[in-house]
Design brief:
The complex is a heterodimer of chains A (about 80) and B (about 160). Chain A is about 45% helix and about 25% strand. Chain A has about 80 residues and is α+β, with helices and mostly antiparallel strands. Chain A has one domain. Chain B has a 4-stranded antiparallel sheet with strand order 1-2-4-3, with helices on one face. Chain B has 5 helices and 4 strands, in the order E-E-H-E-E-H-H-H-H. In chain B, helix 1 packs across helix 2. Classes of the chains: A alpha+beta (about 80), B alpha+beta (about 160). Chains A and B meet through helix 2 of A and helix 1 and strand 3 of B.
Chain lengths: ~80, ~160
C-alpha cells in the first residue's frame, strides 16, 4: 500500500478526487480530507501498472489542480 | 552567491523553492510544461516553501547527466514563468482598461463621431496657402461672382 499526502495549498481537493475517480479501476483508493492536507492511500494496484500508479496519480492530481487554478484565476480577471 | 539548490535522489531531482521568489503561479507554469515527460510532486516542507520533485518518465534514461540537464531546464523555465508572472501583474491595469474599452464602447458610433470631429476640425482650420475658393464668402467682400470669374479667365486668354 502506498500513501500520498497532498497539500491543499498546492493541490485542489476536486483535482485529487478527480484523479481518484480516474484510477479507481486500477487500485483501491482511499481519501482522507483534512483542513490542510488530503491523504490518499493506494492499495492493491493493478499489476500491469505497478509502480507507475503512484506517479501517474500524482501527475493527474497536479495537472487538474493547475487547470482548475487557471480557470478560477481567469474568471476572477474577467469579473465573472 | 545565491544558488537555486536541488538534490538528486531516487532517480529524480528535488527543488526547495521560496514562495517569495517563485510564486505558485510560476511553479505551476513550469510544472505544466514538464508534466508530459516527467512525474512531478509538490509539497510544503515549511511555511513559504514549496518542494518540487521531478522524475523522468523513462527511468532508463535517468542517469546523473540527464537529471542535471533536466534540473537546469526546469530552473530556466521557472525563471521564465516568474518573469511572465511579473509582467502579467504589472500590466493588469492596462489590460483591464483596454478590455473595458473593447467590451463597453460602441465601436461603430465612436468611429463615426471621430470622423465627423475630424472633418469639423479641418473646416475650422485656416488655409495656410490662402487659396481663395468660390464658396468662401467670408474672404473678400468685393469678390466677383463665380460666373464673372469664369469670363475673366476666358478673356485673359
Amino acid at each position: 500500500m502506498v500513501k500520498v499526502v497532498f497539500s491543499r495549498h498546492l493541490y485542489r481537493l476536486e483535482a485529487v478526487q478527480a484523479a481518484a475517480e480516474v484510477y479507481a479501476d486500477f487500485a483501491d483508493i482511499g481519501l482522507e480530507v483534512g483542513d490542510d492536507e488530503v491523504r490518499v492511500t493506494l492499495a492493491d494496484p493493478d499489476p500491469e501498472i505497478g509502480d507507475e500508479l503512484y506517479d501517474a496519480f500524482c501527475n493527474h492530481a497536479l495537472f487538474e489542480s493547475i487547470v482548475g487554478h487557471r480557470a478560477e484565476a481567469g474568471q476572477a480577471e474577467v469579473g465573472g | 552567491m545565491v544558488e537555486l539548490s536541488y538534490a538528486l535522489d531516487e532517480g529524480g531531482v528535488y527543488f526547495i523553492l521560496s514562495e517569495e521568489i517563485y510564486p505558485v503561479d510560476a511553479i505551476y507554469g513550469a510544472a505544466y510544461l514538464f508534466v508530459d515527460r516527467c512525474y512531478l510532486y509538490l509539497d510544503r516542507p515549511e511555511e513559504k516553501q514549496i518542494g518540487v520533485r521531478i522524475r523522468l518518465k523513462d527511468k532508463s534514461k535517468a542517469d546523473e547527466v540527464a537529471l542535471e540537464a533536466m534540473a537546469g531546464e526546469f530552473a530556466n523555465e521557472l525563471l521564465n514563468q516568474v518573469v511572465r508572472h511579473q509582467v502579467t501583474e504589472s500590466t493588469a491595469n492596462i489590460r483591464d482598461y483596454y478590455m473595458a474599452r473593447a467590451f463597453f464602447t460602441d465601436a461603430g458610433r465612436a468611429s463615426i463621431d471621430a470622423l465627423l470631429a475630424e472633418l469639423d476640425a479641418e473646416e475650422l482650420e485656416e488655409d495656410p496657402l490662402e487659396i481663395s475658393v468660390p464658396w468662401d464668402d467670408a474672404g473678400d467682400a468685393d469678390s466677383a461672382e463665380p460666373g464673372d470669374a469664369t469670363q475673366a479667365e476666358v478673356s485673359g486668354g
